[in-house]
From TrEMBL:
Cited PANTHER family: ABC-TYPE MACROLIDE FAMILY EXPORT SYSTEM PERMEASE COMPONENT 2, MEMBRANE COMPONENT OF TRANSPORTER-RELATED
Topology of this chain in the membrane: Multi-pass membrane protein
Membrane-spanning residues: 20-41, 285-307, 340-359, 379-407, 427-446, 671-692, 712-734, 754-772
Subcellular location(s) per record: Cell membrane
UniProt superkingdom: Bacteria
Protein name as it appears in the record: ABC3 transporter permease protein domain-containing protein
Amino acid sequence: MFKHNLLIIYRNFKRFKSTFFINLLGLSTGMACALLIFLWVNDELSIDKFHENDEQLYQVYLHHDEKGEIRSAPPVPALLADVLEVERPEVLRAVEDTDTNEFGDSFSLAIGEDKMKARGKFSGQEYFQLFSFPFLKGNAETALADKSGIVLTESLAQKLFGTTDVIGKSLEWQILKFKGQAQVSAVIHDLPSNSTESFEFILPFSVFIDDLMGKERNHWGNYIALTYVQLAEGTDVPQLNEEIAPLIKNKVEWSNVEPFVKQYSSRYLHGKFENGKEAGGRITYVRLFGIIALFVLSIACINFMNLSTARAAGRLKEIGVKKTLGANRKQLIIQHLGESVAMTIISLIVAYLLVLLLLPQFNAITDKSLSLQLSPNLLIATAGITLFTGLLAGSYPALYLSGFKLVSILKGKLTTSTGELWTRKGLVVFQFVISIVLLVSVWVVYKQIEYVQNKNLGYERQQVVKIPIEGEVANRLELFIDRLKAVPGVVNASATTHSIVKSGASTTGVTWQGKDPDSNILFEQARAYYGLIETLGIEMKEGRSFSNEYGAEEDKIIFNEAAIKVMGLEDPIGKTVTMWGKEKQIIGVVKDFHFSSLHEEVSPMLFHFDISFMLSIFAKIQANSTEETLAGIQALYKDFNPGFTLNYEFLDVNYQAQYQAEQKVSLLSRYFAGIAIIISCLGLFGLAAFTAERRQKEIGIRKILGAGGLQIMKLLSADFTKMVFIAIIIALPISFWATQNWLQGFAYSIEPEWWYFAGAGLIAIVIAWITISFQTIKAMRLNPAETLKDE
């Protein structure tokens, strides 16, 4: 029977060639989409999951209580790690760390006269006992035990020394104006692609506290570290969070923060908080694309169902003969399910070829390095997709075809029931509902990204170059900025610790007269040099900015409007506040500007004059001489730092980088929406062809009786048009809810216009008409004599 069924399957594929190729194209395209999305989702779910201690590895966060609003963030006091390890028996290890992105590429390493930039950070002694980065040389216990040690990645060791056999070799490191000697204590393998860490070397955390920050800044009110902990197996995490919440408040009465732990590997997908509660993150996009994969597959399956049931009349004799010879319904169901699974397997082979062809472009869009390797996960996913698609696509046709009554078959009468018609129409409506929802979603995402790109942020980000402060530039910062201003094409220049495009350092160490003793406001804080506000085009609301015309400015401070509002100060200019124990006079208030993502509202911010620890120089340059100006800046930079390479960045590019996830979602959504519509139209095309073929005699008679082309077109397209209109009516409220839900993730967003939804509906109906028109025009051109010659 198996051999017989295979022969029947082959003959049916050969007999109904157009149906076969439509199903093959639809199913293979849908499965290719599903496979690509699976590869992407699987990679997203694997991020940071490779550590041996994954189940027990947690990061410490802080809840900041800001007048009833809870803000959650990972920077914590550097003192916290030791306290947790000593006071909490559930904490087996606790380690301090710094964010690699805080210093970027500002580090330089030197061996003699040879200098090289590299990405580095500072970590506590037990870092490699928590995190599973395999060692090539050295071991996890001693790698960061010595303050003079340094751990290199394999590729960095090769760049510096030409070999990985480098234990004990010396080099000099520098960050800003701080320098030190170090000996290589270990070499680790390069970090895997599914790691959120991106360092090339690590120095001991004690160097950061003792040499860079200074021990006087290591206190409970300074959130300068990241802290990771390894918990004992079986730890009740919610109970632990409840017990450690008052820990910092018990150390300092004025504190408004409560620590809590969150699984390290969950940060990537679940990194967003709203008022102290987890509120999603990238997991939203993982779920979104999972749903899209399911929808695209469903649309392809619906095509198969509709075309198979529509072609049922052509298989009456086969089914009748089998029933006459004793075949029962179960056997017929198995045969037709086998047919759909065979169709799916053929489609899977084509889908694999499509994936191999499209994967390089898909990797370029998603910025990943995905590959189609036959891993257990991929094999299970492939088998699951194949069975799901085959059984779903074949279920309704199998039940429908096997349900024909023998008497009706032998009489040659196949009655089309009302339920069958409504089922077929309902499936077409469902296809177009999905397509219209995707169309609206794509348009709203596109308009939101456009809004983000063009919104007035309160500062000028165009033609602003960001230059890292390193080497001799750090030692002679004021001279470098003065000479930088003299470079032709440079309009202005200044320096700061802040990136301007995303949140950075913050502090609660500000007090003022009339401050509520029970309230601790978290201020975003930026060290600033003369002319920073003018260079960035930030508008002053009142007062002035820092200027060398007024002499020393170390005892001056500038706030934004949000800070003045939350402080409750009236006529703030000239008033005095205390910051970190030192009095500072308010000399200016800047208008609120967006110094972080538009996902967040503008929060309180301050600028204070301090050139002892600067990270970046910002230079505003003229638009009409960009190339010449950059060449002049590079020449000046080489004068100060011979042997260094200047890695400058444009501020507007850094700003756009914040929205890479949304931009990728926007682009991928466009592709998947297009594919969904194409697959839907394939099914519509097949049904229109079948309808035209079935009604050839009717069309011939109507033409003889004087029916014109428009009447024939109306006859054939009326039902399909009604189905698409019903789909539009159903899809619009769904798409409105979905897009509003997504836009809630932005503090500043567009208001969807009515024509977004009307436009999507219009596009859907036009595409449907174009698809149907091919068959209606073909039917209109038929010669009635040909269609009626057998009558």
